[in-house]
Structure formats: structure tokens, C-alpha cells
Specification:
Blueprint (H helix, E strand, L loop, with lengths): L3 H10 L6 E7 L3 H7 L19 E2 L2 E2 L2 E5 L2 E7 L7 H10 L2 E6 L5 E7 L2 E6 L15
Antiparallel strand pairs: 1-5, 1-6, 2-3, 4-5, 6-7, 7-8
Length: 137
């Protein structure tokens, strides 16, 4: 994935071109990640990313979880829980956590959290205005 066009095609193929959040957590296990997102691992079921379309099942958002090596990756279709400090802080106690969020209104955020703190976060359109415990991390 080394070009913007390739990324655009990937997001379109995943039907995530309008709004999404990708969150990656190093050395975490899936059950603990599900709990940090407010879910119950016992209710998790196999599925595909397209099963999360619309994002809502009653009052609870749906997330897609996958593992890549030692990293757990969470994808949210049209949701932003993984970009919220209230979710990133506990996730980062499991391992270093990073999230990328964007929506149809051009809101966006890239965040890095470690050891229970959001170290750095900034709007992708304003990278010169970071905030967090170590904004320039």
C-alpha cells in the first residue's frame, strides 16, 4: 500500500470511503479489546466487515476485529469509538494503541496512546496542532 490511489481502492472495496476508524493495539488479545470497546466477548461471532455496515445492532455499535501478528486491528464502519480517549486509554494499557478516524464532514484524527495515556492526537488536516501528554511524540 504505497499510493493514495491504492488506499482509495482498498477503502472503496471495503466500503469504508465515507467514514471509518481503524485502531491497532500491539500485544493485546481479542477478548480484552472487545471489552475496552464495551462489548462482551461471549457475544462475538465470526463475520465479515460488511456485517458491520450501518454500525449499529440496537444500541451497540458493531466492530470487526482481526489479528496481524501480535497486533489486534479493529475496524469500525461509520463509527469512531476507537478514536475516543475513553476507549484509547484502557486499550493502551493492553499495549501501544493507535487509531485513525475520518468522517464525511472532513473531521479526522490520528492518535497514539501508551500506558493509559493519549500521548499525541491531531486532526489530519491540522497536524501542526497536536495535543496529548506528549503532543510531538
Amino acid at each position: 500500500m504505497n499510493s493514495a490511489a491504492h488506499c482509495d481502492r482498498l477503502l472503496a472495496d471495503l466500503r469504508l470511503s465515507t467514514a471509518a476508524t481503524f485502531t491497532a493495539i500491539c500485544t493485546a488479545d481479542e477478548d480484552n479489546v472487545i471489552r475496552c470497546f464495551g462489548g462482551d466477548p461471549a457475544q462475538a461471532r465470526p463475520g465479515t466487515l460488511s456485517d458491520t455496515t450501518g454500525g449499529w445492532d440496537g444500541e451497540k455499535p458493531r466492530i470487526a476485529i482481526s489479528r496481524s501478528g501480535t497486533t489486534v486491528v479493529v475496524v469500525e464502519d461509520n463509527q469512531f469509538q476507537g478514536s475516543r480517549e475513553e476507549v484509547l486509554r484502557p486499550l493502551s494499557r493492553l499495549g501501544r494503541a493507535a487509531s485513525a478516524f475520518w468522517n464525511v464532514n472532513a473531521n479526522s484524527r490520528l492518535s497514539l496512546a501508551e500506558d493509559g495515556l493519549v500521548q499525541s492526537a491531531f486532526d489530519l488536516y491540522r497536524p501542526d496542532q497536536p495535543h496529548g501528554a506528549a503532543p510531538h511524540a
